[in-house]
């Protein structure tokens, strides 16, 4: 049983920045879809930023230019750097990783492994 652990969520003012972190098991790191999705109360789950098996990044439109996904091969950590945060970014953010290859990571609604989430709250 693999459970990912996210950290870094907080309450911030609009315009602020946060960095979310997620440790990935070594047998999964760098191979398949890994990244972040979010879910706000009353809203559908939304893919935010993902790396695919080739290391290509994709972002949902509303965060382009503000969020950056990256990974550290030494610590096997995936990060989500968030800047210029807006109230509409308020949500529970979840880390996710797959154990097999597929395309369209950001469009997926279920992944092999996930975490319990970290809350990001942005006030105006």
Can you walk me through this structure?
This protein has strands spanning 6-7, 11-13, 18-23, 34-39, 46-51, 57-59, 67-72, 77-82, 91-97, 113-114, 118-123. The chain is mostly beta strands. It is globular. The chain starts with 5 loop residues before the first strand and ends with a strand. 30% of the residues are buried. The model has no long low-confidence stretch (mean pLDDT 95).
Topology:
Blueprint: E1 6-7, E2 11-13, E3 18-23, E4 34-39, E5 46-51, E6 57-59, E7 67-72, E8 77-82, E9 91-97, E10 113-114, E11 118-123
Distance between the termini: 40 Å
Annotation, overall tally of beta strands: 11
- For the report, how would you describe the main beta sheet? 7 strands, mixed
How do the helices and strands follow one another from N- to C-terminus?
EEEEEEEEEEE
Pairing-aware structural class of the strands and helices? mainly beta
Mean pLDDT: 95
Overall shape: globular
Spatial extent as radius of gyration: 13 Å
Q: What is the helical fraction, as a range of percent?
A: under 10%
Q: Please mark out the parts with pLDDT under 50 across 5 or more consecutive residues, or reply none.
A: none
Residues in β-strands, percent: 35-45%
How many helical elements? 0
């Amino acid at each position: 049983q693999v459970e990912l652990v996210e950290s870094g969520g907080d309450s911030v003012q609009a315009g602020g920045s946060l960095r979310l972190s997620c440790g990935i098991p070594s047998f999964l790191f760098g191979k398949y879809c890994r990244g972040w999705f979010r879910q706000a109360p009353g809203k559908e789950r939304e893919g935010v930023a993902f790396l695919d098996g080739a290391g290509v990044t994709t972002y949902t439109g509303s965060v382009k230019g503000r969020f950056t996904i990256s990974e550290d091969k030494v610590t096997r950590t995936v990060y989500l750097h968030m800047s210029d945060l807006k109230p509409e970014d308020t949500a529970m953010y979840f880390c996710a990783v797959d154990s097999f290859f597929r395309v369209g990571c950001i469009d997926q609604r279920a992944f092999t492994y996930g975490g319990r989430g970290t809350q990001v709250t942005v006030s105006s």
